[in-house]
Write a sequence for this structure.
């Protein structure tokens, strides 16, 4: 495998993923994929018919990394590894995406109230000599939420850019009774699995 720079491209708009990469000493340059506009997103996050949550999240993350790699080549950028990720929340086999409004966010939180759900985050890395992804699954149990809890939370900005309508790193930490899995994975980037992939792509980590 060819040696690579100690810097990567990050194909994600998530500030949480940036913070987590900095936490493990990974330097990066942002490579933004288009998520809307007249031509639509660069990579669709629509769920395919009968697609299981595990297959869905892995496919979307890998497609993002592959599309970003094509951009790197077309723009003749430095051939650094590119990292992309996708997070979804699922309960009873149903995929909960990002709510579009307060009503959708409230409906999601009612489904999660007093129950255990799964947070799936898939990380994909594409480089000159490597392409692959890993999906991490965590169980999260919410305490029983009152109507007041849900209404107050939906009145904040937190639910609307996050799968499942909540962010564990924010006020929704008050809802979490128990987790089993990866706290960083629930935030959007499981660091153990991320490090595995980056090492496979040739990156030397601290």
């Amino acid at each position: 495998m060819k040696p690579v720079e100690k810097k990567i491209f990050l194909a994600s708009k998530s500030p949480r993923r940036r913070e987590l990469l900095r936490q493990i000493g990974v330097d990066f340059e942002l490579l933004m994929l288009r998520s809307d506009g007249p031509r639509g997103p660069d990579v669709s996050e629509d769920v395919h018919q009968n697609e299981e949550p595990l297959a869905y999240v892995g496919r979307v993350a890998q497609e993002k990394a592959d599309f970003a790699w094509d951009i790197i080549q077309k723009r003749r950028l430095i051939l650094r590894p590119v990292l992309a990720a996708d997070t979804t929340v699922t309960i009873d086999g149903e995929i909960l995406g990002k709510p579009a409004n307060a009503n959708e966010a409230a409906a999601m939180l009612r489904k999660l109230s007093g129950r255990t759900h799964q947070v799936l985050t898939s990380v994909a890395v594409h480089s000159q000599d490597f392409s692959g992804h890993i999906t991490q699954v965590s169980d999260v149990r919410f305490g029983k939420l009152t109507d007041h809890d849900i209404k107050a939370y939906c009145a904040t900005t937190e639910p609307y850019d996050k799968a499942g309508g909540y962010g564990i790193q924010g006020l929704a930490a008050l809802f979490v009774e128990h987790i089993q899995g990866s706290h960083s994975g629930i935030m959007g980037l499981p660091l153990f699995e991320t490090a595995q992939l980056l090492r496979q792509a040739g990156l030397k980590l601290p």
